[in-house]
Amino acid sequence: MNAPAIRFEKVSRYFGDVKAVDHADLEIGDGEFFSMLGPSGSGKTTCLRMIAGFDRPTSGHIYLYGQEVSDLPPYERDVNTVFQDYALFPHMTIENNIAYGLMVKGISKAERMKQVDDMLDLVRLPGFGYRKPSQLSGGQRQRVALARALINHPKVLLLDEPLGALDLKLRQQMQVELKAIQKRVGITFIFVTHDQEEALTMSDRIAVFNEGKIIQVGTPAEIYERPASPFVAGFVGTSNLVSGEVAKRITGSEQTFSVRPEKIHLTSISEAPAGDMISMDGTVRDVVYLGLFTRYLVEVEGGTDLVVVEQNLKTTSMDVLSAKGQKVRLSWHKDHISRLGV
Amino acid sequence: MLARVSTYFYRHPLLVLFLLLGPPLIYMVVVYLGALFSLLFNSFYRIDDFTGLIIREFTLLTYVQIFNPANREIFFRTAAMAGVVTLVSALIAFPLAYYIAKFASPRYKTWFLIGVTIPLWSSYLVRVYAWKLILAKEGILSWFINLLSLDGALEWLLSIESIGGSSLALSPIGMFIVFVYIWLPYMIIPIQTALERVPGSLLEASSDLGARPLQTFRTVILPLSFPGVVAGSIFTFSLTLGDFIIPLVLGNSKFFVGQAVYSYQGTGGNIPLAAAMTMWPVVIMVIYLLAARKFGAFDAL
Predict the structure, then answer these.
(1) Does the ipTM exceed 0.85?
(2) Which residues are CB-contacts of B154 (< 8 A; sequence separation ≥ 6)?
(3) Out of B206, B210, B220, whose CB is closest to A152?
(4) A54, A105, A312, B11: which is deepest, by most CB within 10 A?
(5) Domains (ranges, CATH) in chain A?
(6) What is the mean pLDDT of residues A60-79?
(7) Distances in Å between the alpha carbon of B178 and those of A223, A270, B183?
(8) Which of A87, A91, A104 lies closest to B210 in CB terms?
(9) What is the structure's pLDDT at B300?
(10) Which of the listed CATH numbers 1.10.10.10, 3.30.700.30, 1.10.540.10, 1.10.3720.10 matches domain B68-300?
(11) Phi, psi at B127, each rounded to 5°
């Protein structure tokens, strides 16, 4: 049986009184594209730095393919990092930046240059070897940083919000490219981000972090469709949280549940719901026309506001805006309810 | 009224520039460059050996004179001292600057920087004389060396021709110690500034890519902070080159350039020779500065 690429065993990292990471248990499989998602200060970057070796756990153990690495310095770990600010060496050419890992290992210059050319091809920057980092754009530096980390053929590649500094278009392009490169090299990627959309698009699995704890680990669909806590439901996508009396009327228990806005159908009050559908009546309080979608804010009986998103398949802005103030019936399939722990 | 004055200034930006830059510029040209040029002119005069009067005619005789063996020895001795002081200052300053820039917490950093600069608050003369007492035969250093029963080693050191002397307080070794002490802050601060500007992520990246600490030092830290070392060396080298107090207080009969200039223009009354000898460190420093500029040393000042 193969050991997981990375295993955390009750890993904690305290900075004074601050619990940056608190008793984290985690397993990341071989060849996975794994994302660590969470707001800033949630501990995801600290976890990454502990895998890289820049930080050491206060307690607990980290295993890399079964071997404990908790106390190994960074230069003795088969792990490489793409830094948030790229951290390219400003006094070296692109070529020497990429070849750095081979250079410090004492590999011959001819062999180094051959591999550098392969890497420049991989990140689609052929012919850029003689330039300096300052002569490159943000997106190009990003690719160089990736090539420099991949040339060592690490067992695990760590990416610390590498797309944060790029503009939206370039970011989306790099997301696709990163994913393609990962498929090609077959290395385990661990990707730190605070952008839930990025995590959902790229990852095989996601760990959601909050306040130093791992709240939920799962595939993008599991995280989105079955959020385990109000925090996950709110952080990943938009969610309607229903609790108290209103919840009791629907599920028979006061426990909070969530339902995604796009799962709710909005119909006229006269339409009868199908058998396995849950329905509630309410009044449209606000309508926002967004072109592709319309977002409705509906106040249901009992006082809770629910957000509903409907695609504008047939309707126009005239139609949807006139819905304001009207009585409507909301219905959704009972499978789309996620009961949340606390 | 005031509004009209400011409107007038707004319409005449050149006048504002002149008012701002004029006084310091006049000061620089008249006092600073003027003195330097009068020095240059004087170095082309010569002294009449018989009457001791200065003959104000253009001549290169004085320059021929400064290349006589005695003066050549003075230059060589001074340059060697300046070189060794610079090298040792850099070796001592680098680890300290590195610690201050990269490891010390903000609070300790402040204390370290205060500690480095605090000697500059007191008079240079006072500190030199204090060191004369420390280094004296009956001084605290001798007492300490005695305590460690190393006086044999000290005696051997002092017996070495050309760097020794009758005691530490009257020897090139003593001068060297005091030079390093006096100029060290001027080496630490530029190096620390340069290191401060090397992002921590570069060091992490280097180690992440497999470089051991020594490799990281050689391939990343040193190249990126070298301009700071050059900037610091400009201070230590030029200040040692021109200093005359320390050789006067702690030296023996063998002159240094500053000391020679001091005695030629004073007791010797030979202003042209003193001026010509001053031009020598000026020329060396100009060459040094041009070379330093190539290294980008002035970016770190």
Answers:
(1) no
(2) B142, B145, B168
(3) B210
(4) A54
(5) 6-226 (3.40.50.300), 240-339 (2.40.50.140)
(6) 92
(7) 69, 98, 9
(8) A104
(9) 47
(10) 1.10.3720.10
(11) -70, -35
